[in-house]
Each structure stands twice: as C-alpha cells, then as structure tokens.
Amino acid sequence: MRKSVGSQKLQSGTGTRLGVLACLLVLGIITAVIASPYLFSSSAAGGAGGRGSDDTTGGVERTSSHDPRFPNYDIRTGKEEGTAEFFVNKRARASKSASDVADMRDEFVRGENELKARIPHAKVEYNDDIRIPEVITPDVMRSRIEFLTPPSTGKRSEILRDFLKDNSTLIGMRSSQLDALKVTADYKNPDGNISYSHLEQRINNIPVFRGEVKAGFTRDGRIIRVINNLAPGLENATVSQNFGDAGDAVRSAATNIDHALKGNLVVNEAASSADRVVFGDGDWATTAEKMYFPLEPGVAVPSWRVLIWQPVNAYYVIVDAESGTVLWRKNITQDQAQSATYQVYNSNGYVNVADSPAPLSPGPLDPTLGTQGVLGTRTNVTTVKGTGTSFNDNGWITDGGNTTDGNAVEAGIDRDGINGS
Predict the structure, then answer these.
(1) 263 in helix, strand or coil?
(2) Within 10 Å of residue 294's Cβ, how many Cβ atoms?
(3) Model pLDDT for residues 225-256, shown as the tens digit of each residue
(4) Do residue 127 and residue 196 come from a single domain?
(5) Whole-structure pTM over 0.90, yes or no?
(6) Which of 4, 59, 216, 351 places its Cα 20 to 30 Å from the Cα of 184?
(7) Do 380 and 313 belong together in one domain?
(8) Buried/exposed 62-79: b ≥16 CB within 10 Å, e otherwise
C-alpha cells in the first residue's frame, strides 16, 4: 500500500513538473511571438534617403516621420538669405515692381470695402503666404445671418462664379479669367442641407499651385462661405512657359532633402505625359508635375512639383524651373497621435455612431402616432486622434487629457442665460 502511495506521489510530482515546464514553454512561445516584431524590425532610417528615427531603447528602434532637418517650408513666408533678391528678380521678369504688387493689395482692401457696403457684417480674412483675401464669410455669430448671396435655384458653380465677378476687385481677376475657371466639384450632402462647389485655376492648361476657390451653400442656394486661393493679377499671355528639364528639378529636390537618387534618372515613357514625368516604375516611382507657383499678386513662375518616396517619409518639393530654387516643401507623412476612447451610442454603421440615443431612422412612418425609438446602449470606441489638418490636428481631446474640452467643441448647459458663464 505504501509502495502504491509512493508511486502515486512520484507520478503526481512528475506530472506537476511537466505541467510547469509546459506552461513555461507556452509562455516562452507567447513572449517570442510578442517580441518578434520588435526584435526583427528593420531600420528605415539612416543613410542618404533614409529618415529620422527616435532614440533606441533596449535595441529596439522606433521610426518617426518627423525629420528636424527638413521642416515644411514656403519661400513666401521664409526669411532666408537671398530670398529678397529672388523676389526682385522674378518681379522684374514678370514686368512688375514692388509698387505694382502693393497697388494690387490696396485693390483688395477697396474690394473688401465694396463688399461690406452691400453686406455690412461680412468678414474677410487674408492668408499668410501671398496675403490675398482667403476667407469670405458672413458674421455667423449674429442672430440674423446675412448670407453672401440670396436664395437661388441656379447651378451652384455659376452662383459662385457670379459672386466672384461681383467682387472681382476683391478677388483680383477679370470676368474673362473667372469664366475660364474649371468646375472640379459640385455636390450636396445626402440630406441636402448643405452643398459645395469647387472651381480650379489653370494657366495655359497647367494647374496653378493651390489655385482654387470653394464655396458652401445652404439648402436654398445661398452662399455660406467662400475659401479663395486663386492667384490674382496674372496675365496668361505673358506668363513664362519655359519649364526647363524635369530631371534637373528632381535632382534639385533630392539634394534639398538629402535624398540619394539611385543611378541615372530613367524616364518611364509609358507612364509619362507632356505635363507629368515619371522616373522609374512601381509605387516608389519619383514624379515631376508642371505647375505654376504664385509668388505674390501678379507674379507666378513655372515650376515642377516633385514627389519623392523614402522608406518612411515622402516629400512634395516644388522647384523653380529656371533656377532650381526650392519654393515649397512638405513632408506628407504624419505620425499617429495618442489614441482616445469615447463612450458613444454606436450604430455599427459607416460613421460608427447612432443618429441619437434612441434612433428611429428612417422613420417615423406616421408622425401623428408619436412613435419613439428604442433607447440604445453605449459602447466604447477607441480611435487615433489627429487629422493632419491645421484647423483640427488636436482632435477632440488633447494628448494627456480626458475631457472633450478642446479645439473642436466646448459643450455645457447655460443655466443662467449669460453667455460665457
């Protein structure tokens, strides 16, 4: 009997040890699986054409799209040595002087005053690069909003075009130039509450960098707001058409971002056109597109917009076709920001949120019945904030915060009726 018990204990102890070993083996496998992406991660940084990376910790390298050597750049807002001389030279080639440019900007002010004579509470905001009227809007804080145009059943693109003609002094373009704008978008949202129209500027059928104007419309066809980036004061017949060589532009762009081009630049003839040149093939091909770049009112230069892909980053670099001077640069790669979790009434639909806490879409079938929707349940939805847009890059919650009190909304109950308290 004792022998049997001893044997039983031995078998039990052996089984326990085997179980522990099995558990350790499973844990080891799990650990290896979790760690393998970090242990075998490739380095996307370093060397010519590479990208910046953060500090390594424990042999693990984490890539980052931000490279402090190459911040976003615009020559129109830059103050580098030689910039003033560059502008003087380009003005002279366009038969313009600093006084001519100043006179055009004075005309914008006169056009703004003319608009406000018709719509006293209209607001005009100027951009920072070529300092033109960019945002034209009514005062939406007033109890009665004076929209920019009256109700209309006409085509939205033509309503916008007519508004631009009525305010040609503010926009800085003649009627014939405004007639030449190309309609690139004209649509309404599914509910029909708001709609949009989008016109694009071209010179000799070559796009103008950011040369566009957009407008939002109410249901009854009134313009809510105009976003204007049309390049003013240009004469299509006198603007230079000498774009030089696309390969030279690519080499200038690559040098600017310390990118090593592999071998000789070979044009992919099958994928190229007169206005867009492709070097190489596949997803990593470098492209150069013809584009007019407005330096200031009345002055625009032929340029190439070069797209260069790197292992982690990708850059748009706009290069002056004549001199190879870099006019504009943007790293089009963005890192994900800190995630945030929201408790919402989730419909599992496209927008991941229900119409209301008690949705009844598409009803009610008969409003007289007083039908009420069934109260839903709230679920947690985790998203990565950060949109990559300057007006909403913080999302709803700033990193490190935990309340919806950010640049998107600040909601509360106005109990005493005094605004702001």
Answers:
(1) coil
(2) 26
(3) 999 999 999 988 889 999 999 999 999 999 99
(4) yes
(5) no
(6) 351
(7) no
(8) ebebebeebeebebbeee
